[in-house]
Write a structure and sequence with these properties.
It is a single chain. This protein is of the alpha/beta class and 398 residues long. The protein has 2 domains: 31-196, Rossmann fold, CATH 3.40.50.1970; 200-397, Dehydroquinate synthase-like, alpha domain. Helices cover 48% and strands 10% of the residues. The protein has 14 helices and 9 strands. A 6-stranded parallel beta sheet has the order 1-9-6-4-2-3, with helices on both faces. Strands 5-8-7 form a 3-stranded mixed beta sheet. A hairpin with a 6-residue loop joins β7 (164-168) and β8. α1 (37-43) packs across α3 (62-72), α6 (200-219) packs parallel to α10 (292-315) and α9 (276-288) packs antiparallel against α10 (292-315).
């Protein structure tokens, strides 16, 4: 987690001083590595394990594989497979009830970002009490938290590399970023075999999310040499692996690269935060139910263009352009190319958002915490314009 800065630089330049604390999890990767779950649980002192997942992964057989591994290792466990997309406080409370029945000494998250976040949420409440809103922010857990294992089953959020849980508030679905270094997973298993059952549309949406993390974290005002190394490596892996992933039978190599890229992008977020694309995307999810990966894919290319005024030298490190050509435009076009390859909506209109709603969305976006980390500051009027640029097809805008 990056600390507050001691000195601020002009817009577009990284802050003059930085400090970062790296608490990397131990990572085990490779086809079939999920079978190691029980052994890893025992290594971490786990005798009673809460296994958190979702109905889709249970239907795909991955929960059964995880249970078999725990049984083989002699570990007692309780299942909670009630996690939904964009987990709410109510979802975390249901997971907490399952945990209290078992009194676990280890938590396991088997799933995508929603499962990862819900598991961290359970960890907060089980060990420190209170409500999720009590942990909105960073470092508010005063007591130790349980060790945990993260097994990502999508290559998307990178939550397995982060200390934050994004939990939606029950009353208004505002996403609360609840973070603490103690909430990070102790071990991470990256098994490309679990991606084999991910439907193509889900792989497309989560992959676009991972790509957005790499691009945004690379250019934030709070970036520094460590975070940019993570983000650049993530971009290279994801940009190369995403097209094969969208084809039939992509193979383990592409899946392994996507998992590694998503993890590195998550680590980049952990150390340098995100920017304006996520500030614009979150209200689309909260107010209109637009799936997060679709929402961020809709707005990111135009955010890159918006930032290009200040970030041209930064973006030149991600894409190759000839002298005189715009790296921001080249990167935006590449993102649009990947979005089209994935078959994701290309306009807000296609996602069901009307122009009359834009100003309210812009007001909500301006209040998002990630907006403050964007390299180029934006007023609500500029946020409205960014939404409008994503509203219709380019031909209609012209």
């Amino acid at each position: 987690m990056t600390s507050p800065r001691r000195a601020e630089a002009p817009p577009g330049e990284p802050d003059a001083a930085w400090r970062v604390s790296l608490r990397a999890a131990e990572i085990e990767a490779g086809p079939g590595s999920l079978s190691r779950l029980g052994d890893l649980a025992v290594e971490l002192g786990g005798r009673r394990v809460l296994l958190v997942s979702d109905p889709g992964l249970e239907a795909a057989g991955h929960v059964a594989r995880a249970c078999d591994s725990l049984v083989h290792a002699g570990v007692q466990f309780e299942l909670f497979v009630g996690v939904e997309e964009n987990p709410t406080e109510a979802c975390v409370e249901r997971g907490l009830a399952a945990a209290r029945r078992l009194e676990p000494d280890l938590l396991v998250a088997l799933g995508g970002g929603s499962v990862m976040d819900a598991t961290k949420g359970v960890n907060f409440l089980l060990t420190n009490g209170g409500r999720m809103e009590d942990y909105w922010g960073f470092g508010k857990a005063k007591r130790p938290m349980l060790p945990s294992i993260g097994v990502p089953c999508t290559a998307g959020t990178g939550s397995e590399a982060q200390s934050f849980a994004l939990i939606s508030r029950n009353v208004d679905h505002v996403k609360m970023a609840c973070g603490d270094a103690k909430a990070r997973f102790t071990r991470v298993l990256l098994d490309p075999e679990v991606l084999e059952t991910v439907p193509r549309d889900v792989a497309a949406i989560t992959g676009m999310d991972a790509l957005s993390h790499a691009v945004e974290s690379f250019a934030t005002r709070t970036r520094h040499p460590i975070s940019t190394a993570f983000a650049a490596a993530a971009w290279r892996l994801l940009d190369a692996a995403f097209p094969p992933l969208m084809r039939s039978n992509p193979g383990h190599d592409a899946r392994e690269q996507m998992l590694a890229g998503a993890y590195l992008a998550g680590a980049a977020i952990e150390t340098s935060m995100l920017g304006l694309a996520h500030a614009l995307a979150n209200p689309l999810t909260a107010r209109h139910g637009v799936t997060h990966g679709i929402a961020v894919g809709l707005v990111l290319p135009n955010v890159v263009r918006f930032n290009g005024e200040l970030c041209e030298p930064i973006y030149r490190q991600l894409v190759s352009v000839s002298p005189g050509e715009s790296a921001a435009e080249a990167l935006a076009l590449r993102l649009e190319e990947l979005r089209a390859l994935a078959g994701l909506p290309e306009t807000l209109e296609a996602a069901g958002v009307a122009e009359a709603e834009i100003d309210a969305l812009a007001t909500a976006a301006a209040a998002q915490w990630t907006a403050a980390h964007n390299p180029r500051p934006a007023e609500p009027a500029q946020l409205s314009e960014l939404y409008r640029r994503s509203l219709e097809a380019k031909e209609a805008i012209a």
